[in-house]
Amino acid sequence: MNYSTEPYPDHQEAGVWTWLKRRFGAGAPETYEDEAEEAMSMQRRRPNIRVDAVRGVQVTVRKNATVLNDARPVADGLKNGQQQVVNLERATQDQAARILDFLSGVTYALDGSVEKVGDRVYLFAPANVHVHTEEDSERP
User: Fold this and answer.
1) What are the pLDDT digits (tens) for 28-53?
2) How far, in Å, CA of 135 to CA of 140, rounded?
3) In Å, how far from its chain's centre is CA 109?
4) 3-class DSSP assignment, residue 114
5) CB 93 within 8 A of CB 128
6) Domains and CATH numbers, the chain
C-alpha cells in the first residue's frame, strides 16, 4: 500500500499516523509552545475541584475512646478527610483531657474544626468539611 503525501511535498517519508492526521485535517504538528499555551488557557477556564469534595461524606463514630491509643485511628481518619465523632464518657477525666488535647492538635494541624455535640462527645472535622451549628444560624 502506498501512502501519498501529495498535499505535503516537503515530507517525502511521512508515517501512517502523520499521513492520517494530515489527510483528515490535523495540519502541521503543533510546537511545544502552542501546547503549553493551550494547556494554560484550559487551566484558566477549568474551575478547581477538590476530589475530597466530590466524594461522599463519611462520618466515623468512635463509641468509646478510653485511652490515648484509641485516638490514633481517629487521627488517621481525619488525615484521610473523614469526620470523626468521639465519645469520651467512659474515659477518666485525665485520659479524656489527653485524648481531647491530642485530637485538637491534629485537627488544628489539618485546618479542621472541633465541635462539642454532647456531654463529653466531640465532632472532629477536617478542612474540607464545614460544620454548621444552630448557633451559626441564629447569628445575623
Assistant:
1) 555 556 666 666 666 565 555 555 55
2) 10
3) 16
4) strand
5) no
6) 1-46 (no CATH), 57-130 (3.30.110.150)
Report pTM: 0.54
% of the chain surpassing 70 pLDDT: 59
Angle (CA) 83 85 86, round 5°: 135
Amino acid at 105: G
Residue 81, Ramachandran bin (φ over 0: left; ψ between -120 and 50: alpha; else beta): left
Q: Specify the DSSP class assigned to residue 30.
A: P
Residues 105-140 have pLDDT tens digits of: 999 999 999 999 889 999 999 888 777 777 655 555
- Asked if 82 and 58 count as a contact pair (C-beta separation under 8 A), the reply is yes
Residue 100 CB coordination number (10 Å):
20
First and final CA of the chain: distance in angstroms?
Answer: 77
Q: What angle do CA 127, 130, 132 make, to 5 degrees?
A: 150
The answer to whether 121 and 139 are in contact (CB under 8 A) is no
